[in-house]
């Protein structure tokens, strides 16, 4: 019985650690900063929103905040190469547990979440291929 309690405690601790290292739409700036690493650039936009670029590992993360909450996130590789299908799926899933549907429009790909909370595009952003996910009605 003691062994079982230790096992449960370990599993719970790992779940807490794993959840604290991921971030997504709607999260506050502190959680985003903890998950996405070093701030490369921060800009105050004319409408009061703040855009921040983070660098961690092989990715750049550009996050737009309104009222200290993430409303848009863009993901690209530091070296400027395309994201793989697996990477795109991972970023989409992180931002909505709902199913994502894809629509190709020629120059960029579009995605919509089945729960209607987010949409995404994959195309060129600031000269590099990037996936941009936006919150809807938040």
Explain what this protein looks like in three dimensions:
The protein has 138 residues and is of the alpha+beta class. The chain contains three helices and eight strands; from the N terminus they run ααββββαββββ. The N and C termini lie far apart (46 Å).
Summarize the structure.
By secondary structure, the protein is α+β, with helices and mostly antiparallel strands. It contains three helices and eight strands; from the N terminus they run ααββββαββββ. Helices cover 28% and strands 41% of the residues.
Fold blueprint:
Elements: H1 2-20, H2 29-36, E1 38-44, E2 50-56, E3 59-66, E4 69-77, H3 85-95, E5 100-104, E6 109-113, E7 118-125, E8 128-135
The largest β sheet comes out as: 8 strands, antiparallel
- Assign a percent range to the helix content: 25-40%
Radius of gyration: 17 Å
How much β-strand is present in the residues? 35-45%
User: Which outline best applies?
Assistant: globular
Adjacency order of strands in the biggest sheet:
1-2-3-4-8-7-6-5
Distance between the termini: 46 Å
How many E-type strands? 8
Q: State the helix count.
A: 3
What class do helices, strands and sheet pairing give?
alpha+beta
Overall mean pLDDT: 84
Low-confidence stretches: 9-21
Helix-strand sequence: HHEEEEHEEEE
């Amino acid at each position: 019985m003691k062994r079982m309690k230790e096992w449960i405690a370990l599993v719970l601790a790992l779940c807490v650690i794993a959840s604290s290292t991921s971030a997504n739409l709607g999260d506050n700036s502190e959680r985003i900063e903890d998950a996405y690493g070093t701030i490369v650039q921060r800009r105050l936009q004319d409408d009061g929103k703040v855009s921040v670029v983070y660098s961690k590992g092989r990715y750049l993360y550009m996050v737009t905040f309104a009222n200290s909450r993430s409303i848009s996130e863009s993901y690209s590789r530091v070296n400027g190469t395309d994201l793989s299908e697996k990477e795109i799926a991972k970023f989409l899933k992180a931002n909505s547990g709902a199913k994502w549907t894809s629509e190709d429009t020629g120059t960029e790909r579009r995605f919509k979440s089945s729960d209607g909370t987010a949409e995404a595009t994959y195309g060129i952003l600031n000269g590099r291929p990037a996936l941009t996910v936006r919150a809807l009605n938040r």
